[in-house]
Amino acid sequence: MKKILTFCIVLLGFVTVIAMKADPQPDFKFEKETNDFGKIPQGKPVSYDFKFTNVGEQPLIISNVESTCGCTVPKYTSTPIKKGETGTITVTFNAAAPGAFNKALTIKSNAKTPVKYIYIKGSVAAQ
User: Fold this and answer.
1) Is 17 a domain residue?
2) Where would one find the signal peptide in this protein (predicted)?
3) How many angstroms separate the Cα of 89 from the Cα of each of 15, 73, 96, 117?
């Protein structure tokens, strides 16, 4: 009985590994996940391109990119990104108030991790 139970556990482990390899999902690899704008002037929009590569096997599809406020506007690659191809999420920040800022952007996709975050930060100098 002990041998049969051991055999079943080993067999279940092999089946699990094979099943995981059967449906590899897309995945992000960002060049940089946080951009520090440093000191920027008040009222002057600044932008940064977050570049990423699909390191998964299936096409990567971004369904939405959301910011935490209206002062941060994201634009992103909306077409499927094949294995090994690159895409861009352009983030524009319009600094209305002086002081330090730290903003998160939420990326929703069909990736292995369906919700991912990228960040911008810096300091706004009063005019």
Assistant:
1) no
2) 1-21
3) 38, 10, 22, 12
In a domain, 90, yes or no: yes
Reported as a single tens digit per residue, the pLDDT across 50-64 is 999 999 999 999 999
Kindly state the tokens that stand for 91.
Answer: 């983030």
For residues 52 and 108, give the distance between their C-alpha atoms in angstroms, rounded to a whole number: 14
pTM: 0.80
Q: Which domain holds residue 37?
A: 24-125
Query: End-to-end CA distance of the chain, in Å?
Result: 80
* Count of alpha carbons within 13 angstroms of residue 15, beta-carbon side: 6
- CATH number at 29 reads 2.60.40.10
Query: Would you tell me how many other CB atoms lie within 10 Å of the CB of residue 104?
Result: 14
What confidence tens digit (pLDDT) does each residue in 43-96 have? 999 999 999 999 999 999 999 999 988 999 999 989 999 999 999 999 999 988
Task: Measure the CA–CA gap between 92 and 97, rounded to whole angstroms.
Answer: 15
Nearest to 72 by CA among 33, 31, 114, 121: 121
